[in-house]
Write a structure and sequence with these properties.
Blueprint lengths: L2 E5 L7 H12 L3 E5 L1 H4 L5 H8 L2 H18 L5 E4 L23 H17 L3 E4 L1 H9 L3 E4 L2 H7 L3 E7 L4 H6 L11 E7 L3 E5 L4 E6 L6 E6 L5 E4 L3 H6 L5 H4 L4 H24 L1 H8 L4 H28 L4 H46 L3 H24 L6 H13 L3 H6 L4 E3 L14 E3 L6
Parallel strand pairs: 1-2, 1-3, 3-4, 4-11
Antiparallel strand pairs: 5-8, 6-7, 6-9, 9-10, 10-11, 12-13
Helix pairs in contact: 3-4, 4-5, 5-6, 7-14, 15-16
Amino acid sequence: MTRIAVTYSSEVGGSSVISLKKSFLSVHCDVVDADYREMMRDIPKEEFDEAYQSAEGRSRIFAHAKFRAENFLDHVDCLVLSGNIAMIDPELFHQERFESQTYDFSRTIAELALVHVATQRGMPIMGICGGHQVVAVYGGGTLKDLNAGELNKQRFMNYESILFHVDSLLKAIISQHLNAEPSLELEHKFFGAHNQVVEELAQGFVAKAVGSDGHNIEAAESQHGSPVITTQFHPEVTVHGLPNVPFLYKKHGADREVSLKIFEFFAKAGEAYKNKKNLVSEIKSKSCPRESSFSKDKQDNINLNTGKTNVKKQINSSKKTTGLVKIIASNILKLIDKIKLFFIAVISYRLTTKKINQVKRRKRLIAKGGSKNIRAHKKSGTKESTVKIIETQMKHGQPLSKKNAEQARDLEQENISPLHIMGNTPARLWSANKPGEGVLDNQDITSQSNTHP
């Protein structure tokens, strides 16, 4: 059975991630939690916050997270990055933070480390919503907030039409239930709930689907190596809805089967990865005597034929259902779907209006300059002007002041993507300290080469 690691912490929760785990259980996978809180638990919050302020401190946290990720993924066949409410730290892709936004620095670093280790091992990776964005940022991509017009068009907490490119692997996966023309693009509706999208993709990735606006990236695929597919939309909601309102967003019939195909694909990709890991042991096992295996195969065939006979009997029995019952059931389902669409439209309108008002309010505050957000914006503007001065002096070979020289060193480190930070820093084995005993102190570090280069 394929073992799937889904990023989840019971301390944080999340409604869509519950549906995500259920979706993999529906295709007969073993699902385990990649608990990002547990990964970072041995770094006390005060120590983490202090270290995170500098580029050097972040590198040390990344190194620790990478070592923990090595352990988390040792017995896993596929990594799945779930969605989340908190935003990714914009400073990781060289943009400004806003005080009005919610960030989860610890989770972001843990998930970036998981992506790094999974990529090194050639493990299949699936990213959904926030996971889609984490993979982009890991490889040097950038994100952007949706403006009021984009939010108004795509809506929030609603099903949106997604256009898949002709050569998309995702199109090939989901078109099995849609009888799509191979030479044409494919359009299908999926659930979305986001107000931020990927603006620039990671290196080695190609956009394979766009939203109803025709340009926002809704899906991306890796060009090389094991399959890495990320989506801004939520296929798991189509399959199992949301736990708090399961009847509202869950789909039935063909729509549900289309989304299930995505999870079946990753179940098979994980199985292939597991087979690759176990290749040596499989070869050794084939050199053993096979008499017992032949008899076992014979018994398996008998059991299989018996099972087929029972299934045929059940199918014949089910065909005796009267046509009248089928017609009544069909009409009831159609009525339920209409009611669900009405409630989805009402909820989506209210939530979208709230998000649009937040975007407009932030723009007005920036224009007026009269709140904490604006003071932070002004400070970042001052920092930006200082950076420009330093860059100009360095470009023309002019001597830097002591203060500017220190900022120049920080600037060089800050302009490195998480991929390069973790790629150039070996995973470190930390001594068995209790929380609060200086996990990130120099004297506690013992360098260790990566187990999986």
